[in-house]
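Customer escalation, tier 2.

The customer says the design service returned an amino acid string that "doesn't look like it belongs to this structure." They asked us to rerun it and document both sides in this ticket. The original structure tokens are below, unchanged.
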């Protein structure tokens, strides 16, 4: 069965997952808040990688210096409920993200983290295969449960993407054999995507997730590659420069039945200024929910292979 697209109309019914139904209506809300971007480093050439080499003694000092580039900018974040219907449903192909209605009546919010992983991770692969027909392989490369307001497992309050195109391909090299990678690259007959599958573990009020419509991003102007070099390899994420062009969206009162899938790399968009279609995202502060329950959410990262 194909996954159903999340209904976008305001006034949808919320159900919690402790087997008690809550018939609260979810009203569409547009939020004025701020998001933390990077200022463009002085004298930086467009496309230049901002690199920190942790093999060198000055790495920590440079890391601290780069933190000073973070700056809050005012944004409007629109609710996909109701508002999204005016423009039709958002899709992976057009916008880089897609909301999916995936009911999980078996789920209980009291489950521990091991049980959550055992239940949801196989389901995540099934969901991806239903969403992207023709998928030959789904490779899980990470999963993370965020469950605190502060600390390393807290929501990430900075506009970013998990990969640049170079970073995605570099990470893939650490996961598959050289022979398999060479076969993919030489034949150029396989589309490769990196996806983030994000699901609340309770109905979210505090620190919801905002996604920037990929169609509003100019990769050459907005994306700042940030590379971290270690003794055993390197990784590269995308920091983002502010623009008034950016169109931000979220899903109010998103529940465990409502999953958002968003691109972090797409080889089909790698050339022609597509920048690999890494959708930038961030947690944000909803002024009406600053004292709410800390957000609990599960995110899973997968590489997807689709023969052409």
């Amino acid at each position: 069965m194909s996954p159903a697209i999340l209904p976008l109309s305001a006034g949808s019914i919320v159900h919690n997952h402790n087997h008690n139904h809550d018939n609260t209506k979810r009203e569409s809300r547009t939020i004025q808040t701020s998001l933390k971007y990077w200022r463009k480093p002085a004298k930086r050439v467009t496309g230049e990688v901002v690199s920190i080499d942790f093999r060198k003694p000055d790495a920590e000092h440079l890391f601290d210096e780069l933190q000073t580039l973070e700056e809050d900018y005012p944004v409007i974040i629109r609710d996909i409920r109701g508002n999204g219907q005016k423009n039709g449903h958002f899709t992976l192909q057009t916008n880089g993200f897609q909301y999916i209605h995936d009911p999980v009546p078996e789920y209980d919010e009291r489950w521990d983290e091991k049980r959550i992983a055992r239940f949801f991770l196989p389901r995540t692969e099934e969901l991806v295969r239903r969403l992207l027909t023709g998928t030959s392989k789904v490779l899980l490369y990470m999963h993370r449960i965020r469950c605190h307001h502060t600390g390393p497992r807290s929501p990430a309050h900075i506009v970013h993407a998990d990969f640049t195109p170079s970073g995605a391909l570099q990470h893939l090299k650490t996961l598959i054999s050289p022979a398999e990678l060479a076969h993919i690259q030489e034949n150029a007959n396989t589309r490769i995507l990196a996806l983030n599958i994000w699901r609340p573990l309770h109905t979210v009020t505090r620190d919801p997730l905002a996604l920037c419509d990929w169609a509003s991003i100019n990769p050459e102007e907005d994306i700042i590659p940030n590379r971290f070099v270690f003794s055993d390899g390197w990784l590269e994420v995308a920091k983002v420069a502010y623009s008034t062009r950016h169109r931000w969206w979220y899903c109010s009162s998103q529940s465990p039945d409502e999953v958002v899938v968003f691109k972090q790399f797409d080889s089909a968009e790698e050339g022609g200024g597509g920048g690999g279609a890494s959708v930038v995202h961030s947690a944000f502060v909803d002024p009406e929910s600053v004292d709410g329950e800390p957000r609990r959410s599960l995110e899973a990262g997968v590489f997807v292979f689709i023969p052409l």
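Tier 2 assessment: The sequence is consistent with the input. Residues 46-307 form a domain with the Jelly Rolls fold (CATH 2.60.120). Residues 52 and 157 are 21 Å apart (CA to CA). Sent an explanation to the customer and offered a walkthrough call.
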